[in-house]
Amino acid sequence: MKKKTDLFPYLLLIPAFLLVVTIVAWPLLETFRLSFTNASMRPTWNYVGFENYVEIFEDDFNEIILRTFLWMTISVVLKIVLGTVGALLLSAALPGRGLFRVLVMPPWVVPIAIGVFMWSWMYNGQFGMISGVAQRIGLIDGPFEFLAYKTSSFLSTIVTDVWIGVPLVSLYLLAAMQSIPRELHEAAWTDGASRFYRLRRITLPLIAPSIFTMALLSAIWTFNSFDIIWILTEGGPRGATTTMIIDTYKTAISRFRFGEGSARAVMILICLTAFSVIYMMLLMRTARKGESR
Prior knowledge:
By secondary structure, the chain is an all-alpha fold. Helices cover 76% and strands 0% of the residues. The chain has 13 helices and no strands. Helix 3 runs antiparallel to helix 10 and helix 8 (150-178) crosses helix 10.
């Protein structure tokens, strides 16, 4: 009877375990297997060893990796900075604070495709709002197509991604700020500490773990972001916004090279795993230094 009682919790985990194996483990193992083949639309295929991985680095994949990390880094830094500022404003004792907290939600609540289509219209040089306003105030002499040039299209995709991601970061950090005991701020205020001093010595140190966690999650989401870039530029112009996920999609789906696409997907997994491990090591080191103080 005791053995049945001990096994009962594990029996309850079996459905969840089978679900994880079905939707995560099996597709992952299948991707690894296909990465060593020349699978395509042809009915037959063969194992080619590491040939797909060798071809990856013979192409411009190194440039794509650097572009992906640059795109992710700029976007995540802006999200964290603007999200922190937004959380501070939403936590301030201002009239209509509840309304502002509701109004910050639409960029995150609205389906991404709809929001990105709206931005694509705004970036249009002929009837887009941004180009029109820039012409009226004299910044540009004529219509400017933001998505037609390499640098402007790259920055435009970042702006759109930041617009979508900042509300979630703000609300997450707002929740972290509200968990700080009010007694700490009241004691510091009684001792004559300025608002900036309380922010620097109380608020930011106490929400630092939440900031680090959100930065890691945001980095993973941004690294794997597909719909924003695809709807705006499809990776163009001339590959200026082609990230690793876009390149993998074009290879595997558009060109039907499933073996090569799987190898690129494995490279994405390796890059994200390495980034996450390094990030967590730095986070743990920072935490140990803070405890030693």
